[in-house]
Amino acid sequence: MSPPLQIACPQCHALNRVPGERLGDAPNCGRCGKALFAGQPVRLDSGSFDLHAARSDLPLLVDFWAPWCGPCRVMAPHFEAAATQLEPAMRLGKIDTQASPELGARFNIRGIPTLVLYEGGREAARMSGAMPSAEIVRWARAQLGREH
């Protein structure tokens, strides 16, 4: 049996301990009772970002976007579709750079949409520009050395 992983709840942001081999068993949050993996990106802001990026053991793929950005709106359903394929191996999150400009500045986001992959609280990879879901999945898995 593998050691438990710390998984941040996408709803209440509580940390949950889940055995690695049970990630695919639809675990629920111990605090709010909601699913830890719903196949949807979690909305992140300055209050929840560090919890998901640094305290959760899952890699975090973040879409930095803004509501006024046409390519961001085009990519949004593709990013959501990628979540259904990449969970529970990684968490997907979205940061609205208009609502949380401090995060865009903190991570030197110069163009949107920009995908940033965090592992262990550190940036592991970055890619700018809109992509279809298959390319998002392929890119994210390749960055972590998990081609399939």
TrEMBL record:
Alphabetical GO biological process terms: cell redox homeostasis
Keywords associated with the record: Disulfide bond, Electron transport, Redox-active center, Transport
GO CC entries: cytosol
Domain Thioredoxin stretches: 3-145
InterPro entries on file: Thio2_N, Thioredoxin-like_sf, Thioredoxin_CS, Thioredoxin_domain
UniProt GO MF annotations: protein-disulfide reductase activity
Tagged with keyword Transferase: no
Signal peptide: none
Keyword Transport: yes
Domain of life: Bacteria
NCBIfam families associated with the record: PRK10996.1
Protein name: Thioredoxin TrxC
Gene name linked to the record: trxC
